Amino acid sequence: EGRETRLRVVLRVRPLTCTETRRGDQQVVHSLGDGAVHVSAARHDATFGFSAVFDAGASQEAVFEGSGMRQLVELAMDGFSCTVFAFGQTGSGKTYTLMGPLGQSDAQPAPPALLGLMQRSFTCLLEQSRSRASDLALSASYLEIYNEQVRDLLSPGPPCALPLRWSKSRGFYVENQLSVEFESLEAIVSLLLQGSQRRRTSAHALNRHSSRSHALLTIHVRSRAVSAHPAPGQGWGAQGSARGACPSKQGTLCFVDLAGSERVKETGSSGELSVEANSINRSLLALGHCISLLAKPRGKRTHIPYRDSKLTRLLARSLGGSGITLMVACISPSSRCLSETLSTLHYASRARRVTTRP
């Protein structure tokens, strides 16, 4: 607590798709073990290091355990502000890593082995809450940033734009955002699927189900551990708490599924899709700019321009404040995606140098 903590950055390399294999794409990304990955292609030969690297054969469970996600859940229960965000080119496996396969519904759930970081974290959170002797209140809020508008994915009716405010005590926050309480795994998974189905997606040349918005699902964890029998002499504490009550803790666990970075000419996008792509790329550029400045030593940092986009405002605390953050960088191993893959690797390498004070 209060010590400088680096962003934890892990890398996931998806398998070559059937289309890429049929087309004859070469695999240019190779895992070297011990968190290292090597990119070898014409005029490009580079090695990058991360906290962990998950290659094409890694299971969803291996990613959950090896990324440190379980520890993040426990820290959220201890009152810390925790964030995990998935970043990478469109079609690189971000949504699959976080949620599992597409097409899930309450009536047609995904096979347990394919569940993503979100559902596994929910299970871990509820198991931990039952094993700890604590009064726990859990609630969830879910929003998307689409064309620089913040929209609630859980409120009934058509999504409408919500104002983004700033206060000295809360930092940046979304006004009038709906927060829904839940007590079971079925309830929170239902909220996740309900919100995801309302999220903006479109098909283009690189991805048949491309996310056209950034989505943020936040789990609010409020707990107050109470012991039935106070230690001798405890009784009423200095703050008036009875029965040996511990102070309440309020933590958050935020999952951020960033829309994919993309080159408009490669996606074949035009009209509204092109406007969406440009909006996505602008906000990702603003995020990259903030990360670059945060990666500098504290004494050499200039002003961090969080206000340049709604995305960076909402991630301000996670990136440079008092939170604990895990970044999952997702890439394609295909030679055709080399430029975007290198861009993601450089982006993720810079993020490793960012520090926060939880």
Fold topology:
Blueprint: E1 5-6, E2 8-13, H1 18-23, E3 29-33, E4 36-41, E5 44-49, E6 52-54, H2 60-67, H3 69-77, E7 81-88, H4 94-99, H5 117-131, E8 134-146, E9 149-152, E10 161-162, E11 164-167, E12 171-174, E13 180-182, H6 185-198, E14 201-204, E15 207-211, E16 214-225, E17 249-257, H7 264-267, H8 272-294, H9 310-314, H10 316-320, E18 324-331, H11 338-351, E19 355-356
Parallel strand pairs: 2-6, 2-18, 7-17, 7-18
Antiparallel strand pairs: 1-19, 3-4, 4-5, 8-9, 8-13, 8-16, 9-10, 11-12, 14-15, 16-17
Helix pairs in contact: 3-5
Describe this structure in words.
The protein has 358 residues and is an alpha+beta fold. It has a single domain (5-103, 113-200, 214-225, 249-356), classed as Kinesin (3-Layer(aba) Sandwich), CATH 3.40.850.10. The chain is 30% helix and 30% strand. The protein is built from 11 helices and 19 strands. It has helices at residues 18-23, 60-67, 69-77, 94-99, 117-131, 185-198, 264-267, 272-294, 310-314, 316-320, 338-351, and strands at 5-6, 8-13, 29-33, 36-41, 44-49, 52-54, 81-88, 134-146, 149-152, 161-162, 164-167, 171-174, 180-182, 201-204, 207-211, 214-225, 249-257, 324-331, 355-356. The strands form 5 sheets. Strands 2, 6, 7, 8, 9, 10, 13, 16, 17 and 18 form a 10-stranded mixed beta sheet that branches. Strand 3 (29-33) and strand 4 (36-41) form a beta hairpin. The protein is globular. The protein starts with a strand and ends with a strand. Belongs to the TRAFAC class myosin-kinesin ATPase superfamily. Kinesin family. Keywords: ATP-binding, Cytoplasm, Cytoskeleton, Microtubule, Motor protein, Nucleotide-binding. GO terms for molecular function: ATP binding; microtubule binding; microtubule motor activity. ATP binds at residues 88-95.
